[in-house]
Amino acid sequence: MTETTSGSATRKGKGQRKGLKIQRIFTTAGVHPYDEIEWERRDVVMTNWRDGSVNFEQRGVEFPASWSMNATQIVASKYFRGAVGTPEREWSLKQLVDRVAGMYTKTGKENGYFASDEDAEIFDHELKYALVNQLFSFNSPVWFNVGTNSKQQVSACFILSVDDTMESILDWYKEEGIIFKGGSGAGVNLSRIRSSKELLSSGGTASGPVSFMRGADASAGTIKSGGATRRAAKMVVLDVDHPDIAEFIETKAREEHKIRALRDAGFDVDLGGADIVSVQYQNANNSVRVSDAFMRAVETGSDFGLVSRTTGEVIATVDAKELFHKMAKAAWECADPGIQYDDTINDWHTAPESGRITASNPCSEYVHLDNSSCNLASINLLKFLRDDDRFDIDRFVKLTELIITAMDISITFADFPTEKIGETTRAFRQLGIGYANLGALLMATGHAYDSEGGRALAAAITSLMTGTAYKRSAELAGVVGPYDGYAKNAEAHKRVMRKHAAANDDLRTLHEMDRDIASAATKAWEECLKTGEKNGWRNAQASLLAPTGTIGFMMDCDTTGIEPDFSLVKYKKLVGGGSMQIVNQAIPRALKKLGYQQEQIEAIVEYISENGHVVDAPGLRPEHYEVFDCAMGKRYIKPMGHVEMMAAVQPFLSGAISKTVNVPEEATVEDFEHIYFQGWKLGLKALAVYRDNCKVGQPLSTGKGEAKSADEPKAEPEPKVIEVNRPVRRRLPKKRPSQTISFTVGGAEGYITAGSYPDDGLGEVFMKLGKQGSTLAGVMDAFSIAISIALQYGVPLETYVEKFTNMRFDPAGMTDDPDIRMAQSVVDYIFRRLALDYLSYDQRAALGVLSAEERAAQLAGEDPAQVAAQVESYAQSAPVAGEEVRTEEADRSAPAEPSRAARTTTELLELKQGFTADAPLCVTCGTKMRPSGSCYVCEGCGSTSGCS
């Protein structure tokens, strides 16, 4: 994107400096990037699935044809500015991107970032191209605020400070409220506040930090974040040597006990419930800041001293192992507290002469000075995987340079919620470049997430990103000067740069892809150190890994942040209305990379579409199962797999990683202790662990779309009389249409003769297999008669299709039917064929039985429903039915339970694999959210539970 600096520009107070010479990479001279894209108009109507109310409506919005409807809805509803229905309302993505990119380009020109006006124009075009093509995205506050009449707040992450005075504590309440109102979150360390075991100057006993947490929690609970994307997000940290640490550790666990008691008494304590507001401390994530000294005491079983905040003396000693066990037990009970490793964080601190790092933002990825902020941007990694399965290193490097340049420009024009935060941020210019779609990239390239190869590739990419970011920061320092705090911290900053470079030298690569990336990273770090030695650096911090919740959907990412794939099948909204189930596009690509042939790929993809997992998929070798392991489901990634992935990339990040390690419900307290201890040993900066179903206040979807806690006791049903109409047999006429189909399955030949009612609808089926008079032939005849009579009594064909498809027994294997390449058994084949011939597209789609043409359409990115309108066949993906399809015949049969409606990927995964995901319902649209870093995000509307 940029080469060596040339030209000249003047920066006020700094004399004459050179500006950046910008090189076109993505765009073409003389052609505006918008003109290279196909645009289309769409209608956005978003409803609450629970009550049918319309949450948002804007018709005729303009977006690239390549953008999904989900991304369209989220951007139009969250980021377009102006009152809906007024001429001032934005209606095109072009307007949104022009508003934001225009401010960046204008500010860069005014502040000497570019060598010439031509370079500024190229920067503008390259930035717009990258944004409209979903190569990266800025964090949500940029889209909310930049270029509007509002304050130009660009930061999503804030760290505050509080001292041991009432004035400071009240200022903390106020500052948090202002930040929440602006659409962001904040963290604070309360360890300066004296403990409840110490005296006030007046002679009374101090309240202690836990007491003051109540007021801040109540304030957060009443303030909705700007942009209406989430509730207030908070992080509260306490040092492990604080005398009130045991009370802090158990605070939320005690509240969880209270929630259970309230629930059992009949109160509504679900997330957003009427009575949950009476429970305290629910609006913050809590973390204990542990030192190396404490962790060594845990390791050796020693005592550990708790220190007075007023005298600095040890006023009590505790058994370190016992205190560590309390932390693990509390987290096991309610997911809090998390843990932050203080000495590791400060060992990688670029500005220690200006103060220690004591806290983090709510999701723990931003760790730097008190009263500071960080603006974020994330790269869509999958956009850099070329058709030949090579990673496009050159374009990735140039995009990273472009993003860092833009992010630094934003600090120049940005507004901040408090003057203290503004001063610190302008003086240290903290940035947070990161990425999304790592999990999808690993799968597409045939790497298991929990593997040495997967970790090597992730580490190499992260090293290249941060090395390039700091190299660009050093180049910017030569153009517009280093950050104001650099001179005081120059030696420390250089030391940390050398630590990153040394970690890169220690990278163990396994394959050509990660070797090439690591080689480029080595070059980036060499240039970074050389240029930084001469110029210094423009930014005290450059990189971290954020959750990328809402912006991940904006970029149409399959996976967020550092996370693995959530599931192998996903729920997708269609542009023309409706929705469909799709198999992740990374799967066919991965299978091809692993050496499977096209027919095998189609059969495996078909199996995944129907089952949601790869176990026993036809032809898939068991040693390849791990490539398709996901965060949830039948084959989920083990907890240490997540921890080891974090450890692999942590040495190449300025900040930390937003990620929660999920463990199964049966995990023990000792498992938590092991994970927290290994996090320290492996050099992580922060870690949080969540046990499935540990929190009562997480509503779970029931079959009727209502909220119910995971362990809510079932009420005894009241006895009642159910009157059931006796079914009536509807016989076929003497003369009826029929068809006969010959087939082979695994080399065995057979025939199906199917007869229909004249007014449509299957009424009989006869299946022939084996020699006349054999036992097999007799059993098939009896089976045929039973099925035929049941069909005539009104049992719907789709019921049989649901029951008999995927039944496994020999003969099985390849067939001669182009629509059904593989069958698990003869019965499996027969009912798939009957479904294709006698069920409507919607009925088949609800059962996951689709055609070869529809599979081809899906792989080509087309809507298979349009193919089905012309040809009834069979595919890998299909619309997800909201209710079970029922016919007149079905209505005459015994009453049946309605099937669950899948409206999000989480709910789809539950249906496919038969378990309940422990995730909250979105308070905006009523659908089940999915994990995103250390919080949750709704893929229906983009709302998050705490992170942007």
Automatic annotation (TrEMBL):
Task: Give start and end of each Ribonucleotide reductase class II vitamin B12-dependent N-terminal domain.
Answer: 44-134
* Presence of the UniProt keyword DNA-binding in the record: no
GO biological process terms, alphabetically, are: DNA biosynthetic process
Instruction: Cite the Pfam families for this sequence.
Output: Ribonuc_red_2_N, Ribonuc_red_lgC, TSCPD
Q: Which GO terms describe its molecular function?
A: cobalamin binding; cobalt ion binding; nucleotide binding; ribonucleoside-diphosphate reductase activity, thioredoxin disulfide as acceptor
Q: Which family does it belong to?
A: Belongs to the ribonucleoside diphosphate reductase class-2 family.
**NCBIfam families under this entry?**
NrdJ_Z, PRK06556.1
**Function field:** Catalyzes the reduction of ribonucleotides to deoxyribonucleotides. May function to provide a pool of deoxyribonucleotide precursors for DNA repair during oxygen limitation and/or for immediate growth after restoration of oxygen.
Tell me the protein's name.
Vitamin B12-dependent ribonucleotide reductase
State the organism of origin. Marinactinospora thermotolerans DSM 45154
